[in-house]
Description:
Number of strands: 13
Number of domains: 3
CATH architecture of the largest domain: Beta Barrel
Structural class: alpha+beta
Low-confidence stretches: 320-343, 366-370
Amino acid sequence: MKGGMKGGGPVVPGDRIELTLHGLAAEGDAVGRYEGMAVFVPLGAPGDRVRARVVEVKPRYARAELEEILEPGPGRTGAACPLFGACGGCQLQHLAYEAQLAWKRQQVIDALTRIGKLERPLVLPTLAMERPWYYRNKAAVPVRRRPGGRVELGFFARGTHEPVDFGPAGCAIQHPVINRVVAAVREWLEETPAGRATPIYDEATHSGLLRHVVARVGLKTGEALAGLVINGDALPAEEELAAFLGRRVPELVGVVKNINRRRGNTILGEETVPIAGRPWLVDELGGLRFRVSLASFYQVNPVQAERLYQWALDEALGAGTARGMPASPGRPGNGPAGGSRGGGGPGVIDAYAGIGTPGFRAGAPPGPGP
């Protein structure tokens, strides 16, 4: 089972080893020790006793593929999504939700301790979602066409650029409207003459046309936006495609194309052109309404974003001002934050703001709140 000591290490690639996993690394891989060497095992869980095959060996650690769970750890559970394990989009569905929350908290503690050099930092428990499924409001899905014409739209398998198709059930963490947009694009590409004639992008040769499907949805408003990322100027029968998508997904308020002729992994190009309807959707967050375009930076989990912003404002400004800031020179848009030039009132600097949801939330007038 084990190849023995080669170059001073306890394992070599191809060895099959048994070990107990004791923790999770930053990327979600489980980690254990085998004869003193750290071994990282994707899809393992803390407390698992496993049999794994070594696939990579470095001077200080090794990586191995899980082959068999000999004894499950206390936090292991069955994955809700049938694509889990093949699809690389999720890493922790085999852990109970409570165990995932505990791991996220521990990641913050470890960072503050090892990098920040803080002793025993106070880190509160992770705030859980009530329903942590079908919540994401954006997906960027690569497209491939297989021999015979079958089309695959899905996230890449772990460590590859090969998509794992969403299939009929769709992705278990994407909003259902997003899954329907993806399914409608697949139907167009497979079932219509114009769709079958659409060249799908090949990143190895930088040829073909359709690269990604990007879909967004407003959780509060229900409005949706579909984007088609292309390596060119236009799609075959693109207006007919937009009309087809609108019939299949009535929530769509717009269909756009994004032009990206660059090589590499960057999904969106700099130019977005409407095909039908609006080039943005409207959503509500924290009692405010936002226009969200294909390229907008907008939190993909607005349910938790609202909770985060409210908590942060309560802590920074006091619970009495979290629903709005008193007028002062430090208010966003009225001068330096914090009244540093004579204002004296509270203020907010919304750094790395995206479309500005936290800052706008802080500056909203007093009211009932979300």
